[in-house]
Structures
1.
Amino acid sequence: MSVLPCSTFKTLTVVFTTPDIPPSGGYIVKWRPVGTTNWNTVTQNQNPITIAGVPGCYNIEGTIQANCGDGNVGSIVNFAVSSTSTQCRTVQLTQSATYTYTECGTTQPVTINNSSLTPTTVCVVDGSISGGAFIDSNQPCV
C-alpha cells in the first residue's frame, strides 16, 4: 500500500488501569498507521506509556499486552488514535484503482474509483491517501 510521507509527529500516550501486581516484563505496545502491515513495538514498565515520534498524519491502530515473563503474555487489548494532521497537499492519482483519502477542508474519508488513464489531481490531507499509485507533488493545494 502506498502512503504519503508524513512531516508531522506527535507523542502517543497510552493510559490504562494498572493491575495490583504489575507484570514482571512490563507492557508490550505495538502500533502502526492504519492500513500498513509493519508493527512498531515498544516495551515499557510505567503507566502511562509514552511513545515519541508517532506520525500525526495517519490514523493509528495498536495493541497493549502484559508481558508476564518466560514467554507468558496477557490478553491483547486494542486501541485506535485519530490523525492530527490538517496540512494539505496536491497528488496525482496515476493508476486505474480505488483510492481512499480525506479531501482538504473535510474530516471524512472518501473513496473513488479512478478509471481514467489520464492522471487525476486531487487535494488531500497529508498522509490520508491509500490505494493505487500516486505522485506526491510536495506542493500545498492551490
2.
Amino acid sequence: MKHRLIVAIVGLLLVVSWSLAHCAGGPTPTPAPTSTAPAATPTAPIPTDTAAPTVPAPTATAASPAQVSEPFIKIVEPQTGDALAGAVVVTGRAGGLFENTFALELRDASGQALVSMPVTVAAPDMGMAGEFQVTLRWTPPSEPTSGTLWGIYYSPKDGSVAASDHLDVTLVPIP
C-alpha cells in the first residue's frame, strides 16, 4: 500500500512538472538580428536617469469639463447695474444641482420677491454643468428703485443655501 502511494505521488509530480515546462509558456527565444547595417550614432546625449517621468493622473473634471464636484450658479446676463423694466431674459451656467434645478428670484430694495420661478439647467446629465435661459416678468415700479436678482440652490438634504449668485440691478418704469 505504501509503495502504491509513493508511485502515485511521483507520477503526479512528473505530470505537474511536465505541464509547467510545456504548457506554461516559458521564455520565448529572441530572434537573431538580420540586419548587418551599423548601429546609428546618437546625436543627443543619452540620459543616465532611467526613472520614468511622473505624469499626473487625469481627474474627473479634467476628463469631462461638464462634471462638477460642488454646486454652483453663475448669472451671466443681465449684468450688475443694468436697468430692468418689467421683463428680462436671464442667462447663465449652473451645475452640481439635484435634478438640475434652482430658484431664480427678483427682489425689490426691501428684499420682497417680485417674481420667483424654478429654473432647469440644460445639461448632458443630472448634476453636470450646463446653461440656462429664462424670461422673468413682473410689474415694474412707478419710479426707479434698486433690486437684486438671485439664483439660489437649496440643499435637498437640509434646506440650507448650497449655492447662489446675485447681482444688483435698477428696476425702472416702462418708458
3.
Amino acid sequence: MADVYYSVLRKYLTAEYAEGAKHCKLYFAPFAVILPSFFCDILALTIISEEKMRARKKKWAPGELANNPRIIRDAEVHAKGFKKYFDNTNPIYLEIGCGKGRFAAESSRQNPNINYIAMEREPVILAAAARQAEERGAHALAFLLLDADVLLDYFRPGDIRRLYINFCDPWPGKKKRAKRRLTHEKYLIMYEKLDIPELHFKTDNRPLFEFSLESFSARDWRIKNVSLDLHQSGMEDNIKTEYEEKFSGQGFPIYRLEAAPPKSKRVFYDDGLDTGDPIPPT
C-alpha cells in the first residue's frame, strides 16, 4: 500500500509539496483510517529532497546563470535601474515566483509593449526559465534571481506598474508561518511603498485565497474580478502557468482576484503611465 501511495504522491506533487500532499490525501480519503495524515507529509518531504538534489546536479545551470543575457545581474540593477535596463519607457510588470517561466514568456509574447520581469529565488529553476524564454517567443522579458523580502532594496516607487503572484507557497500550518505568505500584511505594506497600482493573484489553495481576501480588506485594498472557479468563469485572456495547467486538468478550481491599494497609502509618483492620481502621503 505504501508503494502505491508513494507513486500517487509523486504524480501529484509539485514544487509546493503541501498542495501535492493535499491532493493525495483527497485521492486516498477512503483509506484515511489506515494512512495517518502525517504519512503523506513525510513522503512529500522525501520526494522534495530528491527533487532538490536532482536540481543541484544540473551542470549547465551555473553557466546559464552567468551568461544568459535575459538574466539581470546585481551590478546592472544598481548601475542603471530597471527603466534604463530595458532602454524604453514601457511599463514594467513583475511576476514573483515565476517557476519555469511559462506565464511570463507567454505574457511577453502577447504584449510586446510591456516590459516583464520574472523573479524567482531558486537558481536552477530561474536558469531553466531563462533558457526556455527564447524558444517560447518572449519579447521584453528579463529574469531576476531574488527573494521577495528584499524587493525594496532593488525597486524604486513607480518602477512596477503591475504585480503578478501566481500559485505562491500557501505556508499552511502554524500561525507564525502566515507571515511568509506573499499576501500577508507585511508584503502588502511593501507593495504600497513601491507604489504598485494593481496586483493580480491566482491560487488553487482555498484557505490561502480566503486569507488573502482578509489581508487585502484589512489594508483597505480595492478588490475586483474575483473568481472562485477561473476556468469556468469565461475569462478569455487568462494565461496558464505550468502548475495551473496540471491541477485544473485534474478538476481542481482555480481562484483569482485583482486588487489595488488605496490611493492614500501609495507613494506619490507620476511617470505618465498610471491612470490613477495617487495622493501624496502626509
4.
Amino acid sequence: MKFENRAPAEGINSSPENPLIELGWLLAGSLGVIIALVIVTSLAAQWIAPRIPYRYEAKLAATLPPFATAPDNEAGRRVQAELQELADLPSIEVLRSKLLGLLQAPATTLVRLLNTPGGQLARVLQAHVDKQGGEPKAA
C-alpha cells in the first residue's frame, strides 16, 4: 500500500499580506506596552517614595549585601570618588548664573569704557565752573 499526500485546498496557509508586516505590528505593540509599563512604574515609584517611612528604608538598607554599600577594592573606590566629584558639582542654577555673569561682563566693561570719557569731561567742566565761582554761562 502506497500513500500519497493530497493537495491542500486553495487559499490555505496563504495571506494577501506580508507576514513581516504583522511581525512589525507585533513588535511595535510589545514595545509600546513595555514603555507604558515603565512609565507607570516610574510614576508609581515617584509617588510612593516620599511616603515610605525612614524605618522601612533603614531595614531595607540593613538587608543589602556589603558590596552594595562600601567599595572594597580599588575599582570600587575609584567609582565612588568619581561619583563624589559629580555630586560636588554646583547646581544647574549656579552654573547658569555663572554663565550669565561671564556673558554679561564684556557688555558691562564696554558700557563702563564708553561712560568714562564723558564722566571725565563732565568733572573737568564742573571743576572749571567751580574755579570761576559761578554758574556756567549760556552760549
